[in-house]
Amino acid sequence: MCGISGSIVKSRFDREDLIKKTLSLMRRRGPDNRSHFKLKYNDKVLNLLHTRLNIIDINKRSNQPMTIGEFTLIFNGEIYNYIELRKKLKLKNYSFETNSDTEVLLKSYIEYGENCVNHFNGMWAFAIWNNKKKKLFISRDIFGEKPLYYHLSDKGFFFGSEIKFIKSLSNESFKVNKEHINKNLFYGYKSLCKNNETFFDKIYSLENSTNITIDLNLNLIKRKFWSPKINIDNRLQEKTASNEVKRLLQKSLNLRMRSDVPIAFCLSGGIDSGLLVSLANKKFHKKVSTFSIIDQDYRYNERKNINLILDDLKCDNLKIFLKKKKNLFFKRLKELTNYHDGPISTISYYIHSFLSEEISKKGYKVAISGTGADEIFTGY
Questions:
Q1: Is the pLDDT of residue 379 over 70?
Q2: Fewer CB atoms < 10 Å away: N or C end of the chain?
Q3: Which DSSP letter does residue 147 get?
Q4: Using CA atoms, how far apart are residues 131 and 147, in angstroms rounded to an integer?
């Protein structure tokens, strides 16, 4: 992941100390580079901040903010089909100075305008300043995998990957959204995504598959660019459906393994992560390293199934035992609450934090897991 934040602010509220403070807060999202882009327009100032985690084209030439002509980009995420898009853009006489998906994203915007998002297969939160139109274009991916928050006030417009970036950059205090907390306590986490409210008043989450454009006069336009379409073919045969699921899954995994740094795999005893690891190993001939959580509670202990997969694949594995972490429960919950700027949705966040921690300690920047497969394939 990378960190992005920025603002269109009245000149009297623009402060370098707040920029530096915010970049410092953003460092954990992107330890490999920190940069800042600024433009002044009469009584307004544009700021774009970025911290980078090197994944694709780790050379400094791909650092951000990235400027090409009148356009400047900050980007968190990955455009999985950037190689295919680059080939299409080359046919339109575009040349490339990097091997990054960042440059492909920006040149896709230059070519296709705001419709560029319809060409992307990936996860993203990005902002592009169009100096021709004096407008900021912000987009969040179709499933909202990458976080993005924003705040509009008399001072200006502020956005960021985390709420704390907005607090820092705006130098404002925000009241806790008590109604949002009450809904969470009463209805549970499933109530939280019914609208774009957050746990702080006047700070909002940009909805998934949504774009924002905002000009120097702070005129904001929001537009949904994608929604799922259901087209049921009752004549579809089971074998045809099975083969197509297999094809799509393999294609999807292969795209997501595009990386210039090593990739780790989260491995539970379930079919989802086991299938991904097996495909990576057997189909795509990747040398995989896996990480597993072992729960001492026999009802959730998947060690037997994990070992079956390991015996078959002969891949590296590191097991993390929750029993050794039990004394860290409240300390870790406090850390996670601060990190997420609100209570975590489910206990899975707590458990997965130990998994992510060990993956990071071993030097991995990218991890693939089977999260979400239960929802797609109707559970266990």
A1: no
A2: C
A3: -
A4: 25
Helix (H) or strand (E) holding 221: strand 220-224
DSSP 283: I
Residue 151 parent element (H or E): strand 149-152
| Backbone angle region of 83, left / alpha / beta, with phi > 0 → left and psi within -120 to 50 → alpha | alpha
378: helix, strand or coil: coil
- The token duo for 47 is 């700021």
102-116, 191-205, 325-339: range with highest mean pLDDT: 102-116
What radius of gyration, in Å, describes the C-alpha atoms of the chain? 22
Q: Report d(CA 134, CA 153) in Å as an integer.
A: 19
User: What are the tens digits of pLDDT across the range 221-252?
Assistant: 999 999 999 888 899 999 999 999 999 999 99
Q: pLDDT for 331-368, tens place per residue?
A: 999 999 999 999 998 888 999 999 999 999 999 999 99
Amino acid at 65: P
**Per-residue pLDDT at 193:** 77
String of DSSP letters for 12-48? GG--HHHHHHHHHHHGGG-BTEEEEEEEEETTEEEEE
